[in-house]
Amino acid sequence: MRENVKFHDGEKLNADAVIANFNRYKQVSPKSSPFYTLDIKSSYPGLKDVVKIDDMSFKLVFENPQPTLLYSMVNFSSPIYSPKNFNEKGDFNGLPQGTGPFKLVEHQKDQYALLEAFDGYYGEKAAAKRIRVRVIPDPDTRLAALKSGEIMGVMDLGAIPPTLAKELLKDSQFEISATKSTISHYLHPNGKKAPFDNPNMRQAVSMMIDRQQLVKELYLGYPTATVNFLNNTSPFYKDMKPDYRPEEAKKLAVEVLGSQRKSIDLIVPTYGLDRYPYKAQAELFQSVLKDLQLDVNIRILDGAAFKEAQSKGDYDLALATQGLPNGDPYTLFTNYLSSTGSSNKSYSLGYKNDRVDQLLNQVKTTLSMDERKNIYNELQTIAASDLPTIPLFNDASLIAYNKKITGYKATIYGTTLPELKWAS
User: Are strands 153-154 and 47-54 parallel, antiparallel or unpaired?
Assistant: First the structure.
């Protein structure tokens, strides 16, 4: 490990601190949150032990070789906190104490977080002394706060809807920054009941959606339309163009439904409405799916009710997003495509493919990166054919800011916050 790194509370980063964090991962896993679930079994599959070599070196021992371990070590399940930061249950005993350029000095849930530049940071120091990150759920309120000068910029997922970004750019004092995002958007089908237990019906829906139009009309062309389950920021991503064939889709629907019409429920999470044009997107799907003999009823549910409906199978289609945990898609493929995958079960996808299970078992012991890529290519191809979930597009990380600040750009997940400073 890097020498002379300190936590925000003054403790030294060393092998003991890392081992304390891994012990905490084991103790609390699986630990759910509104963000990502902390689960060491999915983040570090097959991990047997964490061994101290010396003060600044440690060893991870696995059941099988892990050629993509470095990808896993930069995922959301791998933060390293001060070993004094946990109580006996593994929960935080105060504000998180990391090693980054900013220290969290104050936090009011659902209101704001106050960041302060950490003087003991080992790298280039943050340009701003203090940054207050406010929570403003409503996009119109965020835009109004930005235009009034109440805030200098917006950040995070769906920070500014593309339509509002277009409006904002009419004012020369504001700027937009956009880049690829690790977030993908899907239409989850309930594969445990008719009609979406039939892959032909899932294919019909997929071919009926004009993804290019969706991206252009509702997202102003910032995202990238795709039929690939895997996000395009992964080094294993395979480019797969959307297949828009409405007439073929109608034929498949007739094969499944005959002459009957089917009433279905499309559920939409309220948190998506705060970030994306999900209402308009749901209404678009409601319109186009009529031609597949599907009468869509839109149900808007809060986060808890949305998750419950999916787990109980009380839905037919669901608007959903998924982030890419890390560059190696093993965990993502396992969660969604494995017959015992956690997302497969909790979203009632009802997907099972013996070849997929075989490939996922095979990749666990595959050392060659070329062979690993071949396996992932096949998994992407199978997913595009079977559609356990229906991919729509890879999102774009889109942020907006007042030109009174500089050094503020979008990254694939977040912003260049340490570089932010006043322009004058």
Answer: unpaired
